[in-house]
Amino acid sequence: MSVINHQVVTPEAWIEARKQLLAKEKEFTRLRDRLSQARRDLPWALVTKQYLFEGPEAKQTLGQIFNGHSQLIVYHFMFDPDWEAGCKGCSFWADNFNGIVPHLNQRDVTFVAISRAPLAKLQTFAKRLGWSFKWLSSSGSDFNYDYNVSFAPEALAGGSATYNYAANKMNMPELPGISVFFKDADGNVFHTYSCYARGLDMLNTAYHYLDLVPKGRDEAGLSFPMAWVRLRDEYGS
């Protein structure tokens, strides 16, 4: 429904309409709770390959990144080694990260971002945007390729790049994703979940606020949904 000539009713009628929507919202919440439980109930896959990541400290294995917690969330941040800046879309998500890290730590969760760009580029970009969350480089590792967020030139050329659990024809060497891991008392690491594409929507606070306002995300007339997004320090330039 357009915001132009939008239906206007009495306060009493508005309350009745809102109550009807509230019933649907409560149904959605219950469905979401069941979906979240189904996500947690997924079987796990043992991670057998060794990966090394470069960060502020010495190089770390995937198991060491957990930093004393049993659960690990990885945001796969699009930053190709040849790029001079990180992805604008991933930066839109990353603007949500700084404040949540201590809260996640209290629930036995470590959070990191991982990209293929060299560490120096990651640190320069993080400083520019005021980010303090841990950001690691997987340069020289198969990690991004194995978790289907980076794509070899031959896969792109042949249309066989796997993204969001299906072969896709695309020309982007990097795409975003989130992967979750668990480490048991013996040090075994398991892959428990990954999501891509619209599966990342639920992790963007700004999008959820936009979904509350009359115009919503207001992306219908754009060349692609996120065409309006800029790096935080580039709006108005």
Q: Explain this structure to me?
A:
The longest helix is centred in the first third of the chain and has 30 residues, at 11-40. This protein has helices at 11-40, 62-65, 88-94, 101-105, 119-129, 143-146, 153-158, 205-210; strands at 45-46, 52-53, 60-61, 71-76, 109-115, 135-137, 161-163, 166-168, 177-183, 189-196. The chain has eight helices and ten strands. The protein is of the alpha+beta class and 237 residues long. The model has no long low-confidence stretch (mean pLDDT 95).
What's a quick, concise take on this entry?
The chain has 237 residues and is of the alpha+beta class. Helix content is 31%, strand content 18%.
**Quick one: overall form?**
globular
Q: Tell me the number of strands.
A: 10
- Give me the side-by-side strand order of the main sheet: 1-10-9-4-5-6
Roughly how much helix do the residues carry, as a percent range?
A: 25-40%
Radius of gyration, CA atoms, in whole angstroms: 20 Å
- Uncertain segments are none
Sheet having the most strands? 6 strands, mixed
Written as H for each helix and E for each strand, in order along the chain, the element string is: HEEEHEHHEHEHHEEEEH
Question: How many helices?
Answer: 8
Average pLDDT rating: 95
Class inferred from helices and paired strands = alpha+beta
Hey, roughly how much beta strand do the residues contain?
15-25%
Q: Give the termini separation.
A: 32 Å
Walk me through the topology.
Blueprint: H1 11-40, E1 45-46, E2 52-53, E3 60-61, H2 62-65, E4 71-76, H3 88-94, H4 101-105, E5 109-115, H5 119-129, E6 135-137, H6 143-146, H7 153-158, E7 161-163, E8 166-168, E9 177-183, E10 189-196, H8 205-210
Parallel strand pairs: 4-5, 5-6
Antiparallel strand pairs: 1-10, 2-3, 4-9, 7-8, 9-10
